[in-house]
Amino acid sequence: MNSGEKKRKLEDVMREFNGLLVEAVTIFNEGIHLLCDNKDDKFREKVKEIIKVESKADRLKEELIEKFIKRETMAFTRADRIKLVDEIDIVLDQIEYCARTVETHIGLIADYSPVAKHFKKYTNALTEVIKTLSSAIDTAEVDLLKTIEGTKLVEELRRQARSHSFQIMADIINGDFKNPQKMLLYTTTEYLLHILDRAEQTSDYLRMIAIKYLVMT
Question: Could you tell me which of 170, 25, 154, 171 has the C-alpha nearest to residue 98?
């Protein structure tokens, strides 16, 4: 870490780290849309971009932990902040893992068009969930009530996103896929749901600590 990075405020590093949620899920959403349009090579390029974002997140996480150790202060305690950073990192890990796993399916599924419509709708909805979560995390430093409202919106958007997963399942069943291809598509859907579930878990934790600090003030 160079001297310029050491002088950065904790809040600025946290904001940059949190912003990677939006960057990663946006790239992921673009990638899934490309895959659904059977543009395999362009999807692979998006996977590489996601890997770079995750690598950057790992570096920023270490920088944050170093600042926590030095007792630089923020609205939340260090323990709560470290836990929140871990939760964000897990969401980023899930996005990368899903993208890299789906990449291994390329060539095994020749045509995604039977499931493309609802895959796209799902990842669009997932993107909105994570953007809303990221915004709620940012507001936690200045407005805890607004953060709580943001987490409620995450829950509402999560329910909407999950409804698309059931439509994907129906598309898989009704589509002209062989059984091995159906299993791969089911697996992809499960990984997409894992991202959604981890985002919800992060939102639930954020709401809990926001309520805790409101009670303490």
Answer: 25
